[in-house]
Amino acid sequence: MNPAARSGRIAAAIAVATAVLVAAPVISIIALAMQPAPDVWQHLIDYVLPRTLLDTTLLLGGVGALSLAIGTGTAWAVSLHEFRGRQMLLWLLPLPLAIPTYLAAYVYVDLFEPLGLVHRTLALWLPLQDAVRVLPNLRSLPGAIIVIGLVLYPYVYLSARTMFQFQSAEFAEAAKTLGAGRWITFWRISLPMARPALAVGVALVSLETLNDIGASEYLGVRTLTVSVFTTWLNRGSLAGAAQLSCFMLAIVAGLIAIERYGRRNVTTEFSAESPRLTQRTPLTGIKGGCALAACLLPVCLGFLVPLWYLAHQSFKRGLFANFDMALWRDAFNSVAFASLATLTALLLGFATILAWRWRPNTLRSVAMNIAQTGYTLPGLVLALGLLAPVLAIDNALNTLAGWLGRSLPGLIIVGSGAAVVIAYVIRFLAVPTGFIKAGFERIPRDYDDSARAVGAGQTMTMRLIHLPLLRPAMVGAVIVVFVDCLKELPATLLLRPLNVETLATSIYQYASRGSFEEGALAALLIVAASIGPVAWLTRFSDIPSGPA
Fold this sequence. Notes:
InterPro entries: MetI-like, MetI-like_sf. This is Iron ABC transporter permease. Keywords: Cell inner membrane, Cell membrane, Membrane, Transmembrane, Transmembrane helix, Transport. It is a multi-pass membrane protein. It is found in: Cell inner membrane; Cell membrane. The structure is a single chain. The chain is mostly helical. It has two domains: 240 residues, Orthogonal Bundle (MetI-like fold), CATH 1.10.3720.10; 272 residues, MetI-like (MetI-like fold). The chain is 75% helix and 1% strand. The protein has 25 helices and two strands. A two-stranded parallel sheet has the order 1-2. It is globular.
């Protein structure tokens, strides 16, 4: 076998193995759900499912609507208008992505609880009891919708902004000729044309909301995710938790179907005759000030307030001066798990796309598509689905050791933290796969043909041509995956080894004990690690507007 064929088969084998790895948790969940759990299931039907399904539906709908309103409005303002402070907003508006939903929930509950900062401030003007009555109850469904929506709206903003700033000028000019004003043009032209991007953004927001467990649990909203968690750990029913997880998978499938429906029959190509982009409308005076204030409000609430609170608590409690050595240990665990998962996901994603690039066929295309579906799996469902396969492997290794007359190694994969790394890889594999696929699409196949003409094999072409040109995409993938791994809570919470904490689980433990302020520095480290990557993703987001 020649080296090119051998390299191609190795890449194809890795691609297929990657697809099997991603599909394994789903298969495991379905198998677990088929086990009988009559006592638990009757309890779930009578007391859990009605409220859980209602709360989950209302939460997804509310967060989606709030994120859609904030993300679309801010994207439209900064993409199609010019006003003082606009350049600053381009960097600030995506930054709430650096705040995990559970951190936002912990911060705002502390701020608005009785005797919290907001209550003490109101007490300066109102009697103490009246100040308590004025405070909003954030431990509620509306509170969860507001808190989660404020940190997830950038998914809609980034998607909508891409569409708004690339809209052709001819449509707005035609509407203006017919007498349409700015608002009519927005509702009748800009918004419908941005529908595909809005559908993608809302779908991402909904998936992140469904994945959340820290914020929902802390704010008293019994979502399906929280119910799976309590059914598994509190009631000890793995089969019941798996059956609830199947409901979550059905919701995920529904969200994907809605996203596809939102993008139906819509084309976003530029006109061949008039490729000019829409000119930004200047806003001055009161209009410009209102636009700046409206765009700054979600940034302040979704990013600046949590960041200020965490920094304030860290200094107030002397967490910088008296640095807890346990925090070093938790930070090391977080970085170690995230680094291993990032490297593994990058290698698997690269091999999967490379196999498809070298020799596209049905098998490799299916493997590539399956590899990109892991992100749709909520972290809790992923952890539950991985549990049975991982324990089976550990048991097989113990059986093999006993057969060979060696001492039993115990739970190797679970006990070493490898299960956490595997969960990270499956969940975030879509990121490097998507980035690298997009990078390959920008490399003309003529380059491959030219390399082949001078006698270069596939491996040499990959090393000398593909890798240098893919470096920006791969760097972007590494940054995004690493930060996502640092923030991931549900899968880490359930798969980490005993007595092993990460920054995310350490913060969760503090909040569960009612002393979240003591974990402010750990939370600040996660936010600080996330700010740079979020800013990096927006560094080239602005383009010049069309000519007047």
